[in-house]
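Running low. Any example?
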Amino acid sequence: MGHRCIAWLVMITQILMMVATEGGGNVPAVIVFGDSSVDSGNNNVIATVLKSNFKPYGRDFVSGRPTGRFSNGRIPPDFIAEAFGVKSYIPAYLDPAYTIEDFATGVCFASAGTGYDNATSAVLNVIPLWKEIEYYKEYQAKLRSHLGTAKANKIISEALYLISLGTNDFLENYYIFPTRRLHYTVSQYQDFLLNIAKNFVKELYALGARKLSITGLVPIGCLPLERATNILDFHACNEEYNHVALGFNKKLENVITKLNRELPHLIAVSANAYPIVHDIITRPSTYGFEVVEKACCSTGTFEMSYLCSDKSPLTCTDASKYVFWDAFHPTDKTNRIVSNYLLIKLLATFN
């Protein structure tokens, strides 16, 4: 089959991008909330051990520069913003190298290690979701001061908001620490998180957001870290975790449907990445990958953040052959394929 799947995704995306360009584009900015799947460097400036602003992270980014993105290159918001003709990468709000002029067309409030649950952000001392909203309110004030109220409000209402959360709530919190498990079954915890998600969307809506893309969970049981610890099943995917992810995504779809009905002028879509990531993992050669069970960095089993060392002789030389960059996060190539898959729906909906 070769690279037929990639070629198809790229072709459809390019057609939609051309249509968007001809139509002038209806998305003036891309605004990002979430965790490490979309964090472009906010963790660089906070007191946490969960950072990635050092090599080999970013070795395939512009000029080989580590930015705080948990990848060897770009992450999905960068590809999505580029497809909408906004910019090639989304800057982190806490990065002192950028100003409100840069943030006017795109800004990231995400923090690696965070979740919907405040208890999740406390595990590694990262930015909780409520604080991401506080930064967003601060951003709005700066934007109005910079552009004037009318122009700022137009950007706020027409911007595309990307939300990607949930993985850490389960893998970093629920399944590791007993506190939540003592109070909630898995299904109850899913409902607990989704109630937070619903209120989060309503708060964004009250602040002027109208175009939202919400990503649920990928096959979390197939992350290299989970496979490495799944010794009894000979390092196969943890299907219990994958089942939890599928259940969460199904409930999230229902929440999004209800929000669209309840909130006038809201256009929220489910950017469900589970099918494409699962397909990449089960049929890697179709997408040009050679290694799926281990990551590129170091031994590819447990390493992420500071354990992902530039000094490790085991780190792969060509990340494009690997689905995962570190034990938890995809490579630039995987991020591009997933983004192209999601863009078919996003470009069709928001342009």
Summary: The chain has one domain: 4-16+29-221+239-273+337-350. The longest strand covers residues 30-34. The chain is about 45% helix and 5% strand.
